[in-house]
Design a protein that fits this description.
single chain, 237 residues, alpha/beta, seven-stranded mixed β-sheet, two-stranded antiparallel ribbon
Length: 237
């Protein structure tokens, strides 16, 4: 059963080496992510599943020990998902969202439970996302770390330029994640999320499926839009 969940943004800029001179601008977001991971550890799960958006090559399961890299962002930095597992050399490279998660877990010294990753395609239909989430709710005590960004269209300088629909979309996402509103998350418009470049839509709907009948309460730890991109940190416990 799902015993806890944490929702974090997944921009590579969360990693100070990638952000370089702008690293301090996301200190508050990093601190909120650390607080969210502490909630997961306190739930004493039997396993942690990290869910994040992925391109075709990064979709599907990623075992503990799988490695990721920030070389594509100009930084010679590698990460590993969790602390143990099988032969990491035989695993596919982590997609960027799961690499950021691996960095967060390592930064906080995660040791509460074994870790596995799941890359989810951004175009995945809502019904399928919910079905995937329900499949994660096994007999053991499961915690989810759900990675994903809200819209990338909050300002003129945002990656997706300014879209007047972005702010209300992000506000509803923050409200739904902060209150564990499963119905609202399941109802998120996939086409609108795609147009607003909101990479978290599919992972959030996976979470909604996994949380059915779990009776978890939500708490919003952080919501802001640095660089014109919506970042949300929330916990469910």
């Amino acid at each position: 059963m799902l015993v806890a969940a944490a929702v974090c943004p997944c921009p590579p800029l969360l990693v100070p080496e990638v952000a370089a001179g702008a690293a301090a601008e996301l200190d508050t977001a990093r601190a909120a992510c650390s607080d969210a991971l502490a909630v997961l550890a306190a739930a004493r799960p039997d396993r942690l599943v990290v869910v994040g958006p992925a391109e075709q090559s990064g979709r599907g399961p990623h075992p503990e020990g799988a490695r990721g890299s920030f070389a594509g962002f100009g930084v010679d930095l590698s990460v590993r998902l969790g602390r143990g597992g099988g032969d990491p050399s035989s695993a596919r490279e982590l997609p960027p969202s799961l690499a950021v998660a691996a960095w967060l877990l390592d930064r906080t010294g995660w040791s509460a439970a074994p870790v596995e990753g799941l890359g989810v395609g951004e175009p995945l239909a809502a019904e399928r996302c919910v079905e995937v989430g329900r499949g994660l709710d096994a007999a053991d005590r499961v915690a989810l770390l759900v990675m994903g960004d809200a819209s990338a269209c909050r300002t003129l300088k945002a990656p997706g330029y300014l879209d007047e629909r972005a702010a209300p979309f992000d506000a509803e996402v923050a409200r739904a994640l902060g209150t564990a509103d499963l119905a609202a998350l399941k109802a998120l418009d996939a086409e609108l999320a795609y147009e607003l470049k909101a990479s978290g839509r599919a992972p959030w709907q996976v979470l909604a499926g996994a949380a059915d009948d779990a009776g978890l309460a939500g708490a919003l730890l952080y919501e802001d839009a640095p660089y014109g991109v919506g970042y949300v940190v929330a916990t469910w416990s």
